[in-house]
Every structure is written in C-alpha cells, then in structure tokens.
Fold these 4 entries.
Entry 1:
Amino acid sequence: MKPSKKVWIIVGIGIFAIVLGSLYTLYFREVGEREQLSDSLEAAEALLPGLAAIREELEDQLAQATSLLNKSQAEFPESVESIEYEDDLFEIADDCNVAITMLTASMPTNNKVGTVTYSVSSFTVVVRGDIDDILEFIYAIRTGDDFQLPWSAEVTRVNTDLSIATINLNIYGYRR
C-alpha cells in the first residue's frame, strides 16, 4: 500500500507543526533569558556609581593609612634611639653612684648640616645623690664617658637643691 498524497501532506504539516512548536519554545526561552540578562545588567549599572564612590573612599583611606604608616616608620627608629640613650644615661648614673628619679625626653628631630644628618633629643633628668657624684655624672655626660652609641650631649641647664639636681640636656645622635 502506497501512502496517498493526503497522508504525505498531513505528515508534512505534522512535522512542520512540531518544528514550528520547537522553534516557538526555543525563541521564547531565549527572550526570557535576554530579559533576565537585561534586568541583571540594569541592576549592575545602578550599583556602579555607588561602588565607584566606595572604591574612591577606600583608595583615599589606603593613601592616608600608607602615609600614616610611612610617618610611623620614620619615627620608630628615633624612638628606639631615645630608649638607647636612656639606657646609656642610667648606666652612667649607676657608674657615678647617683639615682635617676625622673627622666623625660622629647621626640627627636632631625637636623642636617651639609651631608650629615643627626637627631636632637631634649632630656630632663632629675638625679639624687652626693653633690660630688652629681658633678661627676654631669661631667661624664658632657665628656661622653661610657657612651655605647655614637652620640654626644650638651648640658643646657643645671639646677641643684641639696642632694637633688635637675639637668636639662640635648643629645645629638649621628645618623648612620
């Protein structure tokens, strides 16, 4: 039995309907994805200005933090030097048989003369002991006896009251 023309037409229309239905389904699925992507793109574009502002703010904070870190790192070695000067002062006081009862130091500043850079720290030292020992302590500071570091001191003022002396001095430390 040979299929007739009507059967071929019905089969052709059926195949055409199936292909058309598949294309219709595929098309509307793609349209849905496109709308979803478009919505996502609009949401991302809406967030972009806010994110850019946040990024600029974070970059400013980073720059400030970096600047503060550099400043702190620059000051740190000077603080260490001040501690080392204080160690030397206590050692000199011990050698001279005086007791340091108070010690205050200013933050070191850098001075440059020609190509040489040195730091200057101001100290106020209050010592207690016999007057001869106090004078020996002052002399040891001025002459540089027992200094472990490359530094020198200038005694700027001395006040004495019986067995207590307040000594103001500047310590000049050489920068290596």
Entry 2:
Amino acid sequence: MDFVATLITIAAALVSAYLHFLNSSPETRAEFIRSTKTLIGSAGRIATYVVILLITIMSAAAIYLFWTSDKPITRPEVVMLFLHFFNLSMYGFMSVAIPAKAIRKRRNPETDESDKPVPQPDAED
C-alpha cells in the first residue's frame, strides 16, 4: 500500500511540475530545457566513466585472483587472463585519459577540437 501511495505522490508531483512548466514564460522554458539537457549530458558522462572504472577494477581483481590462486592453471583461465590484461590496458588508459581531457578542456576551453576551423586550400586563379 505504501508503494501505491508513493507512485500516486510521484505522479501528482510530475503533473504539477508539467503544469507549472506550461504556465511559465518562454524564457523560463528555454532556461529549463537548457539546464535539463546539461544535467542529462553530465549524468551520462559520469555513468559512462563509472562503468569504465568498474571494468578496470574488475579486470585488475581477476588478474590478482589468478596470480594468488593455488589451484592448477587451466586453458580457459589463461585465455581469460589475456582478456583481462587487454581490458585492464584499454579501460585503464581510458580511465586516465577521460579525466585528463576534461581537465585540459576546463583549463583551456578555447582549444576544444570541435571548434577548430577546418583549413581551406588556397584558391589559385
């Protein structure tokens, strides 16, 4: 019963927020849409980075467990070890490169690669 009451409360809050959005000025609507897009974009980047970190940590843990295991080595374990080394190298690089790129972009925003002009060949007549 508490779950149903929670769902009804959430639905009422969403309806009231939508009605408030409809009654607001166009400038307020534009600001809300802009800030919502920014928030969703940031949340997506953070979620992606968390997944990359988790894969890196899981691969490092699997390599450590293989290293410290007392059981005899089997072929599937060796194949998985190579795959874990590959994951650790690729995702480990990404887990360092993504924050480094974000820090560079934040410190020097005018050198963003997407804003660089495309060089045009000289027109000769």
Entry 3:
Amino acid sequence: MNDFSKCTPGDIILVRGNSFISKAIRFHMALYRKQLGIPERELFSHAGTIVEIWGKKYVVEAQSDGININPLEDAYGDKDPKDYIIKTPKKPYSKVEIERINKIASKSSFNPTRYDFLAFIYQIDMIRRTRHTTNKKWAGPTGKKATDRLYCTEACATWANGVRPGTFDKPWSVNPLDIDINRYYVTK
C-alpha cells in the first residue's frame, strides 16, 4: 500500500500505464520533450487531481467513461511508486483555495462530461506540426467547446486554473509533460 498521507488537495498525480494508448502517449511525450530541448526524464500518460472530502483523499480524473472520483488509496494504492509522481503547487493552496479545488474538481464528476478521445489526435498533430519550431499551436477545440469534453490533463489544468487563473496557459492543450514541467508545481 502506498503512503499518500502527504498529498494535499490540489496535488496532481501523474501516472504511467502499460496499455497501448499509454505507451503511445509516452512515445509522443518523448518527441515533445526533444522538441522542447528537455533532457531525458520519466514520462507519464495520465493525470488526476487530488481532493479531500469528509477528511478522506480522493482522485478526480477524466477516464473513458467520463469524470470519475475514487478514493485515492483504492485507485492507486497498489501502483508501483516508480509509475507515478505527485506534483504539488510551489505556493501551497490557502484554506479558501483548498475548498475551491475540492468543489470544482469533485463537482465535475456529477456533470455528464464525455472523454475527449480526439484530443489524443490533436496532441499528436500539434507535436508533429511544431517539430521544428517552439510555436506550440493547438488545432483542437478551445474555450467552452473544450470543456464540454475533457481528457485527463486538460481536466487537471482547467481545475487548477479555476483556483489560480493562469496556472496553465491554454488548458485545453495541456499534456502530461506540460504538467510535469509547469513552473508553478514541484514534485513531492
């Protein structure tokens, strides 16, 4: 059983899976990492936001069947610690911000939100089009259209921006590496 006792609301868990989709995402994250000129590092393929409800920690995440909320221990308690990292805001959330992230993220699990499978294709397209430039240009949906369907990292970025606007630039285009290297977060 993993020890998530130091996790706090607003932390983001980045996870590495073994499915074909997970491996494909990590492959494209490796291309993206090279484009950005970042040295080799562990790459992840999924993300969820940690919240606290009634004194218990949960993870809220976009999955194939929509936005789900599950006890953190049930979701990742048996996961090998080398297959995930916890990112936490450099400046810890205040009590008001904790209440806000708990409300924003957990409320999303009650709204019927479809998973944005097309975003995977948009991410690949964005990485390929920007291979020889630092101009990261998104071709997928933005704004309200983007929040009607969410994928995992987009959800985490959207919720973080709901607490601290501007934490993630263009949350609809955020991928796992963007979360990992975000200047407002550090690894726990």
Entry 4:
Amino acid sequence: MKWSRLVIGLTATAALAAPATAQQNLGDVAGSIKLKRPEGETVVIDQGTVGNARRQRLGFQSDLLRDVVGDCLTETSALHDLIEETRDGTSFYRDPWRERVGEVGERLDGALDELELITAEGRYVEAYGIATRGADLARDALMILRSAMAENRPVFSESRTLSEEAVRYLKDAKAALAAASRADSAEEAAPLINPIEADRVMTAYCAGQYGGGSSGFDSCIAEQRAAVDAMAARTGPGSGLDVASFNVIRNNCRFEWPDNLVSQDHCEQTRIAAKKARQ
C-alpha cells in the first residue's frame, strides 16, 4: 500500500489552504497518523487515528484515484480468495489463515479509508460512484468475516457473496476510470506535425503504393504534402469548433490513419463538418 500518497496528499492540501493555520493543522494531522511496521509485515495505518485524517480532503487527482481503486480491488480480491479457502472445512480454524486475513484486512481498511479522502470531478464522478459502492460492499464483507472469527463461528456465507460482488463493482470502476482517462487524453492538444516524421510516413506510403521514382509516386507525395499543409493550418477556432472537440477529432484521426496523411486530413474534414452540423 502506498501510504506515502496519503501523507503527501494531506501535506499538499494543508499547505495550499492558509499558511499559518494550515501548518498547525498539518502538524496535528501528521502527529495523529502513526505508522506501524511489525516485524515481517507491511506498513499499516493505526485505525484509531484515521478519523482525524478523514477530515482532510485530497481533492481530485485522477492518477491517485486510479491507484487507490486498484489497491481496493487488489485487497478485496485477496479477501475473497481467503474466504474461498475455507471451503476445505479447516482453514477457518487455523492460525496462519487468520493471520493472513488480519494482514489483508488491515491493507483493505487502509485502501478503503484512502478512497474516502478523494473527491471526483467531471467524467470521473460516475466511476467514483461505482468504486464507492464496491468499497462499501467490501467493508461489509470484511466486518462479517471478522465477527465470525471473533466468535469462532464459521457463519459468514454473506461475506463471500458481498466480497464477490465488491470485486465486480471495483473492476467496473477501474474500467470506467480507464475510459475517462482515455477521453481526457483525446481532448489534449495533439503534438505539432513533425516534418521529418511526416516525410517518413508519406515516403513509406507512396513507395508502397507506386514504387519510388515513378510519376505516381511523385503525385502521391504532392498530395500527402498538401494534406500536411492543410492540417498544419487547421485550428479549432478556425474550424468553428471548441478546442476540446477539435482535439478529439484530430487525435482520433491521427490514431486511425497513422500511415496515410491524406486520409488523416479527409478524416478531420469529414468529422469537423459532421460536428458542426450537429451544433
């Protein structure tokens, strides 16, 4: 578990708020978070002090959100696997199995608590909602299993069902976050056309179509260069589109037609026209 994320995030949040007061609050929070490292075990958070840290929010960080959801999925899957081991009828009563449940449970507690510190914005809100639903199910599954262990009664079939459902939700959340991230990337400005790379692409394409040195090759190169010039001069505002919509079209066309600049240019023209017609 990457617990440094929690401490660093809290530090950044406090430092940006109000210098003098935030410094004092940060000291209170940092002092209340106690890292334990029992011999042979990973670092865990003292659950008695997490309540203070929860009052500090980390805000929205898409990379951190993806990492934390991944941690929740990993530990929830591990919990479900441990529950499945009890089908042999003896694992539940064995100390090594219970010790592993304790270790996974502490890591899962930490991941779930960290998820609560994060907020979501824009297209990430839906994915975050799916993740928190899975987190709630995972926490309930862990609570039921711990209660069964405390009472030494192997009655926790609901824990198996809840953990399995939690894994499904967290997998869906992870996929939704990946889709949101791809959408963000598509809206980023495409890199400027590299003349050297453009020459390589058009030469390879035209040589494959006509053979180097032929009249067809020369005409092909001229068409490709005209397409490059047209795309270099094209902008979102000049095309009548907002910047994000234009970037999505340009990036998608670059991805779909990496080896034919004429087709790339035609793709942009067609989709810009279609987008404007829908506005």
